[in-house]
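Input set for joint prediction.
Command: fold jointly, output tokens.
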Amino acid sequence: MAFPLLSLIVFIPAAGAVVLMFLRNDGAVRWTALGVTVLDFLLAIAVLAGFDTTTHEMQFTEMHPWVPALGITYALGVDGISVLFVFLTALFGWICVLASWVAIDRKMKEFMISLLAMQALMLGVFCALDLFLFYVFWEAMLIPMYVIIGVWGGDGRVYAAFKFFLYTLAGSLLFLIGVIVLYIEGGGTFDILALTAQDLPFRVQSWLFFAFLIAFAVKVPMVPVHTWLPDAHVQAPTAGSIILAAVLLKMGAYGFLRFSLPMLPEASVHYSPLMLVLSALAIVYGGLLALAQDDLKKLVAYSSISHMGFVTLGIFALNLRGLEGGILQMFNHGVTTGALFLFVGLIYERTHTRSIAEYGGLMKAAPVYTSFLALFTLSSMALPGTNSFIGELLVLSGGFAANVAVGAVAVLGALLGAAYLLGMYRKVALGPLRLGARSKVYDVNLRELTAILPLAVLVLWVGLYPKPFLGIIDASVNYLLEQVHGGSQ
Amino acid sequence: MSAVALLQSALASLPEIVVVIGACALLILGQIVPQGRGHLLVWGSVAIVLAAALATFMLANEVRPAYAGMFIGDRFAAFFKALFYLATILTFLLSRKYAEIEEIESSEYYVLLLFALSGMMIMASATDLLSIYVGLELMALCTYVLTGFLRWQRRSNEAALKYVILGGAATAIFLYGVSLVYGLTGTTRLDQIAAAAAGNPGDPGLLLAVVFIVAGLAFKVGAVPFHMWLPDVYEGAPTTITAFMSVGPKAAGFAVILRVFLNPLVVASDAWIIIGVVAIVTMALGSFVALVQDNFKRLLAYSSIAHAGFAMLGVVAGGADGIASVMLYLLIYTFMNLGIFSTIIMMRNGTFSGEIIEDYKGFAKLHPGLALLMLIYLFSLAGIPPTAGFFAKFYILVALVERGFVTLAVIAVLLSAVAAYFYIRIVMLIYMREPEGPFHPALTPSVRATLAVTAAGTIGIGLFPAWFLKLAQNSVFGG
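tokens >
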């Protein structure tokens, strides 16, 4: 039997959470959590290093019967698409721990336990090769996330936590019915690969497509089921916002890639115009809303909706450039928006305000902070040389190939992005010095710099030399396209 | 009946005999146990149940029809009996301290519980409408008395009175249905009724009889529109008895429903439409009305109505998977519902009633471990994985979709999203509010043991459902 590397990655944070339960001292809790997440990250690097980029086959697979009577197995494995997000999740694991080092002022132990539980479940979602297992991970994430937002969030946290919980639950429950229908129609198996190979009648595919759409669209989130996101983001503690932006939002798009496209190819092709329109709508609507925000977190939250519109646009362009761009953009959005939320969190710790109007001239007080903020802001607006440029370029060229009108609207959205992001940066960093409620703002310290640096490296790396990243997903994307277009003919 | 047949019948019903004789012995011994030795009663009762469990276990390998077709000892019955033993033992463990705090210590309390147990066991094994009736009444009479056990509380008396009157009416309706069946078919044995029903399908008289019988049984499981008694009784009864009633008698009611309606021949009729409508309406009412409750026991009463509705969907699905899904659901429900009830019972201490939901504000701050347990039970009741509550619902949905009832499944999950709201609201109060004062949970070793067992069941079945699923599937009757 092969070494169960993926199981290890998934369950190390869970084991860490159990260990934390027995610790009494906040310092020990922090360092243990950091140790666990760093170890997890190293293992994720090991997976990436051992990953064979020439094949679309699942790698590092593990399979054990779990509930044999219903054809449920405990099956893990990664392909080119999921391995990227395993890496991303593991990376943000320790960044979140660092981001919460002093920001969490009460019940540190419980917070770290929730954070680690969250990480285990998120990694499980990306590794699961069994639909039932996937659903268990997917749905169980609600518990720690609900607690993270609801206990450590801002003043409106209870409402935000409820809204997050009920939106996602309602979406997932229809997904559950879809899963069960798929199980019955697909001949009594939950094996994702076996189900992918099934050729379902179009009518069934259509129903399933919409059942899945509701669940995934809530997670992405797509307009018009996005309203939970600003609330959740604004109220969540920094680490919660980072997780939401960097990983949780990717799960909806990942669901499209893993289930909707390969399992329901004909429906995906048939309904792709609808999806393209919804994506374009999200890009423009999210951008317009972001333009009108005064709250830093809300601005980044709405920009997320806009950026995730690019992701779904790329995915449902259903061509090579669109898909590769969409997936790369998922990764980029994770890095960049995760970083932006980290930055908002850092400045909030110092000034206790998120209102853009109260800031100004931060460049003079915190030059390192503002320089990095500039990098991530430019990355978010997809300036050439940064990661998002590559992603958005691919998405747009794929989008134009699929539908010129939608492509044109998306370009408009990209312009909007430049407007609100540059506007935000100008008001916060430039001009005369104004520091919100507090008079003293110190620059980033070493701990914070440690969290920022890898993200900055990724921004430039993907921006200047995207080949390794595209190489990882290439084989899987090609295979996915084959499945979609092979199945629809 | 020859002596051999009688002996064989007695053997098949050995567990019932053990419980009844044990209860009688306890009734006498209870009078001579000195004051302050109440724990002897608890352990004596537990020993009786364990002896019955042993007998059930030894006899479970074989199907034993007994008493000229009125009774059967099969795996289906054994499964339900195991569930009843579990519920009863956990109730015993919870009762000791609670009875002391409420000052209702007496041996009759345990004796009545044992008689109720024997009634439920007869219900699980009965294969004749009359033996079902005997079991039903034995159980019901004991629970009427137990409901009114808080003698000097107006609420408890009121609940008991309501329960007796409405319960009596329900039993009368049930009996009327039975008499109609007898008039039409000339028998009260389930298998013979099924054969007669197959002979002339769609007989309006028989359908009427079915409606009466459904009504009588729906009353026992608290299905709409026969649920009116349930919140009042649950609120008024001693909490330990509420906990017991929400799992034991309810499961017994389902055992009978399964036996009567999932007889392979009856399934051919359209009785499922009645049950399907009742199930959906029950779920909807339970879920929506629970949203506005501020009393914990009332909330759990409505929650138990909603859960009964969900379990009924498994009856609608029918077939081996349908039956097994209901059985597994009831088993899992026993763990999680007794779990949440034991936390309420534990909170009853001194002047603290533990019944008002708002009283739990900030509980997590002072008792993180107990709060975590409550969180697990509540998320399980809401059906969120990886808890057992999710698997219970999942399996029922699988059974439903397998039979093509996709619309019912969709309605069911949407209603369970509504239900999730009020469970999560309690979690919110526990975790996200500030406490107003200290809590003094009455944590005795036996309460701890109950919490441990229920938590282990709630998480364990959730993570490793395979064995329990197999057990339920192997225990389906007729297969």
